[in-house]
Amino acid sequence: MTDPIHLPSIDSLLQSKLAVPLLQSFGHTLVVEALRQTVDSMRQSGKSLSAEQIVKESSTLLIRWTSPTLVPVINATGVILHTNLGRTPLAESTYQEMRSIAVSFNNLEYDLDSGKRGKRSIHAEHSLIRLTGAENAYVVNNNAAAVLLVLTALAQRKRVLVSRSQMVEIGGGFRVPDVMRQSGAKLVEIGTTNRLHLYDYENALQEPAAMVLCAHHSNFKIIGFTSEPSLKDICALAHQKGAIVFHDLGSGALLDTAKYGLAHEPTVQESLQAGVDLVSFSGDKLLGGPQAGIILGKKELVDKIKKHPLARALRPDKLCLAGIATTLLSYLTGKAEEEIPVWQMISRSPQEIRNRAIRWKETLGCGDIIDGKSMIGGGSLPGESLPTTLLALKMEKPDKFLKMLREQHLPIIARIENERVLFDPRTILSHQESSFLETLKHVVEEWN
Fold this sequence. Notes:
3 domains; Aspartate Aminotransferase, domain 1; Aspartate Aminotransferase, domain 2; single chain; 18 strands; seven-stranded mixed beta sheet; alpha/beta
C-alpha cells in the first residue's frame, strides 16, 4: 500500500506569505479556487509539491483565467479589411469620442433643448442624410440585422423578388434565403445563376410583390457569360408595378475606389440616385467605423422601420452611435483619406510602402524585398488587389515560425507563400511599427 501524499492544506497556503501577492491581484475567491484545483490535481496524479510549487502552479492558472481573450494584434497579412482580425481599426478621433462617451453620462436619449426624453436615432441621422442625400436614416447593430429588420417591417408574409445570382452566403453562414425565411417574407427566385434580365423581374411582378431585393456581389464575382440589368432600370420597373426596391449594398463605400487603382465599388450615393427606396450597408467595412448596420432611404419607409418592435432589439448602443457619428464627420469635412485607417491603407503610396519594407530589412539584417499584392478583404471588392512591396523571410518551418509570432505579447499575424513568411507594410499601423520590428527581431534572433 502506497503512502498517502502529504500536501499542505488550503488554509495554510492562504495564510502564508506566498499567497499575499495572489490575493492582492486576484481576490480571495479565485485564489481559493486555483489552489484547490492545483492541490486536487496533484492528489489525483500522485505527485507531491511544496507550498512554493503549488502557489506557482496556481498563479499560472489565475493568469490564464483572467487574461483577456480579445487582444490587439499586428496585421502584417496585407488584407486591409480582415474580418478575422476585427475588420478596420478606428480613426483616432473616433476612438477618442467613444472613450469620452464611455466614461461619462451622456444625452443618448435626452433632449438638451427641451429637457425631456429624446431619441437615440438622431445622433448619426443628420450626418448620414447630409452626406448621401437620403430622406431618412436609421442605425442598427450590424448589416445582417438591418436586412432582417427591413424585410420583417416591410415584407412579412409578402412576396420578395431576389435574383438567383444574389442568393449569397457570406462569412459566419449568413445566407440571404435564411434571413428572408426568418423575417417571414416569401422568397421568389428569378433569373439564373449567371444571367438575369429585366423581363425576369417583369414576369415575376405580374403578381403583386412588396419588394425587390438586390444584394450586391460583395464577396464573390460571376464572370464569363453573364448579364444583369442596371439598378436604375430595375427601380423604374418595380415602381411601375408598385414594389419597393431594397439594395443590400454590404460594403458601404462613400468614396470612389477607382481613384485608388481598384475596380469601382458601387457607392451608397449611386444606389440612391438610381432610385432605390432603401439601401443598407455595414459600418465597419469601407465606411471605416465601428460595427453597425445603416439603413437609408425614403422617409415614410424608414419611419415605419423605426417603429417596428424588432428595431428595439437591434438598436445600437451609445458607443456605436458615437463612433459612427464621428467617422461620418471625417467624410463631411473631406478628411476621410487622411483620418480613417482603411482609407489611409488603401491610399498609401507604393514608394512609402517600399521604403518601409527596405527599412525593416536594414533593421533586421536579413530578408528579401519582393513585389506582392495587398487584398481589400472584408466582403468588399472581391478579387481586387493593390500592388505592394513585401519583406520575405525564408524559413525551414514557416508554420512553426508563424506560431512563434502569434505567441508574442503583441501577436504578429503574417502569411506564407512559397515557403517564405511575408510581411506587408500596407496594413501595419504607424503606431505599431516600432513594436512590430522589436518583436520580429526578437523572434528572428531566438529562431536562429
